[in-house]
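Reply to dn_fold:

You asked what the input looked like. This is it:
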Amino acid sequence: MKKELPVFESWPFKVPSINVAIKKIDNLTKQLKEASNAKEAIRVVKMHIKFSDALQNDITNISVHYSIDTRNERYKKATEVIDNGFPRIQAAELEFTKAFLDSPFKAELENRFGSFIYKIFEYQMKSFSNEVVEEAIEENKLMTQYSALIASCKVNFRGSTYNLPQMGKFMEDVDRATRKEASEAYYSYLETRVDEIEEIYDKLVKVRTRMAKKMGYSNYVELAYIKMNRFDYTKEDVAAYRDEIQKYVTPIASRIMKKNFRRNKIYRPKVFDMGLYFKEGNPIPKGTTLDKIEAARKIYDTLSEETSFFFSYMADHHVMDLEAKEGKNSGGYMTYFPVYKIPFIFSNFNGTSGDVDVLTHEFGHSFQAYMARNIKVPEYRSPTMESCEIHSMSMEFFAEPYMDLFFDEPDKYRYVHLADSISFLPYGATVDEFQEWVYLNPTASKQDRDAKWHELELKYTPYKVATYKGCPYMMGGHRWLTQAHIFECPFYYIDYTLAQVMAFQFFNLDRKNHEKAWFTYLKLCAMGGKYPFRTLIKKCHLKDPFKQGCIKKTITPLVKVLKSYNF
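and this is what came back:
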């Protein structure tokens, strides 16, 4: 990496000309088709990679700035340009991909760029079509509309106004009356936005279904699996995997929650009690945002030479926007600037232990991008989503031994983090089965969708549903309305659970042999996306989560760890 890269605030903000970009891609496509020899074809592909990286750099910069401040008119207009123009760019890129696949110099191209690129490009051809450009533009607009709506949400609480992430600390407050009041303010406000949010989703379901039908698929589920590059597993594999979660993990998650209630002497638990682990209060990280960054710097200075350099490099270049603030998008993410070879971490710190979770999680994504930064083929730098999340979730556990830098009682954090990670699996399965049902039943009413969500909660997380009495929003099956992935990244959620099971494997291995665990992790990060999910984990000698019994075998040692804390 080049040290002369300026800080984030100094980077040029450029809005690419869609027409110019399309003209450039068309010209490269023409050159590839007309290439008279393999050397010329390879030269054109390299030119295309360089152009694509530059274009993606500008688009990513627009996306990051808009997510930081959705109220900024300049960023709004730039986002509209991309929303309207990117599907047209995709259509042009499709022609270049086709020219690559049809090139008579396949042997030479395969030798230079690898054979897996052909599989990736074949899926790209199956996932988009010139026929659905208008639908893709509409989909982009609806997703932007949703994110802007969520970012604009303002909850009045005790004389002040907060956005949704900022309410988190009040909803985990040690004082039950405060939790109750905050919860009522939060959910009562969301209830006023239900119709708007459900209308956006209804339109998204319809436009995605139209896209699938136009492209010859029976439903959007088929198209979604291709768009997600699920090369080596099917929806039947996922269904069997969800059953394993429901069979083995749901009872464990139920016991964890019931134990929390007993520990806190809460005998009639309500929805606002679910987030509290200790009656003295959940572990709260020490200090300001800057203090947390410095604590993380110390962790990564200790963990390895690679993490030491890279975390400081990120912090010194200001490629982190961490605090929740008005007008900012909700959630957290890592994105990558291919020209600068540096990631960006976005989050919404709210003073809870979640601040530490998101910082270590997104740094895991960032570190993988750093380890794979010199891979020339963009499609190989980052793997498919479920593999990506292994890097992030595993990093959360690699950071656990150093939690005394963040917390006065680090074991309490470790307990909560592990308990939450286990309990997440049934929720992740709920989201996935819900999405599958929605797109297999695209004409279902809004009320049908809410009812289905409630039904699935009873299947996977009945212990939560038992606390919903007195909260119309949750009883009405509306919890999913603030799960951004359902709107913006359809079918991207079971990936988290698959990766969580893999991260548990790293955690178990790390407790036995840190050197081996870290070596395996570095190997996984450096491979990027050169192989599909199941091949990547096989090459790292990890267990396949789709294999029957894997979940039970992986989770069993974790239950023993939880019991060892004696809370």
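The longest helix spans residues 38-68.
Hope that clears it up.
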